[in-house]
Design a protein that fits this description.
About 70% of the residues lie in helices and about 0% in strands. The chain is mainly α. Helix 11 runs antiparallel to helix 12 (about 295-315).
Amino acid sequence: MGARKHRLHTHSQDAALSADFLRRLAKVFIYLSAFAVWVVMPSTFFPYIGGKYYFFRFTVELAAICLLTYWAFEPAAAEYLRERFRWLKRQPLFWAVSAFAAAFVLAAIFAYNPGAAFWSNYERGEGGFQMIHYYVFFVLLLVLLDSASDWRVFFALLVVAGLGMVGYGLLANVFTGDATSGFRNPFDFVGPYMNTNTGVPAPPGFWERIFAHRFQGSLGNPAYVAPYLLFSIFYAVWLWLTARKDWLKHILFGAATALFLFFFIMSQTRGAFLGLIAATFIFFLGLLISASVKARKVGAIGLMAILIAGGATFYFRDAQLVKNIPGSRVLNLDFGESTAQTRFWTWGSAWQGFKERPVFGWGPENFSPVFDKYFDTRHFVPGTPTETWFDRAHSIIFDYLVETGLVGFLSYVSIFVLVGWAVFKNAIDRRRPGPIPFKTAVLVFLFAAVLVGYLVQGLILFDVLPIYINLFALVAFGAFLFGSSEGHNELGIHHEP
């Protein structure tokens, strides 16, 4: 009888371990989603796009299947998941993101072209179907990553993913052949010198190959590299600041921060550069107005340093020495350029389209009909290289307004309003009991700064997978950070939410 009970107990333990393995496996697949940015498939029509979306969807779907199977076959899982979802329902950011995702999908259903809006196309991939995957990704992050250590692991993997993105770009720049030389690399890299239409041979030197073009990494577009690295810088700095007395981590994450910053500049993306400046300014301004006395002193010093460095850079921007610095293109901010002018004209078309369909908009991936219907003839400028075709408004404001209407746009804005309120309550509100720790102010405004940087660069760009992954991850982290006792401990706030 005792042996039988022992066998039953052992069997029960094995079953429990087996079921818990599914939960841990779901977490592994969510971790793996960070590496979607590594996927470049030369066999696809758009090598930098399709493979990334397939990989991301696959990992998210596998994570969801594992979690659902865990819930179905493990009795203890029901209570665990019930508790996680009970916590989830108390998070305002969860409801804001849910409203945005729902509005996005509804905009796809009621779109001018519902098929294109829901399924998207091979060039963009950002339809309603993809938004459902982003939302599931967001929920899985909130359910599975329930501790600060889980989030640090995820951030570390995102740093590794960023390093891999940079590494691919370096290899592609150096070892990719070009059409004129007939050289074919053995690794089938897709890089800036593979364009058979230019007829321009690749530079012969190692450094020339790296710096001759704006850095595009494994994303295929420098405009995507910069905002992606903006998030990567945040992850590296966060891990750097929270490493306590682990000097090896300080060195590693400090080096990663410097590397990300260098290639951020090498992307030569002016909108993202303004975003970085805005992020840095907001960080020190936040410290200046925070409830921490020490933070206010650091904020004042930081702001003065920014003003001095920024003023000197602006004053000497036309000096030959500055122009010879790789990446100096970011200092050439001219709103009269054709690339800026075409954006302004396109925003006018987007505004006209929004006024025609203000509630749910024209639907995701449906900007082309708007651009055609309200085409601005100033795009045709004799002797000037201007763009005459746009499938996105090239601004998160106008993109969400024209594609998802007021419903989608306001739900999107609500996410950042709630983040701002959380920042105020935890770092600025001086009615809080007790003095606010310096660490709290630094981490809170570091979190706020990266989102401000994202919003500023997004004024002249649009969201794509490398950006969306980081945006949804960061908002999920914000819900954990401001809405859980463990998150409060990470910030140095020693009170219950």
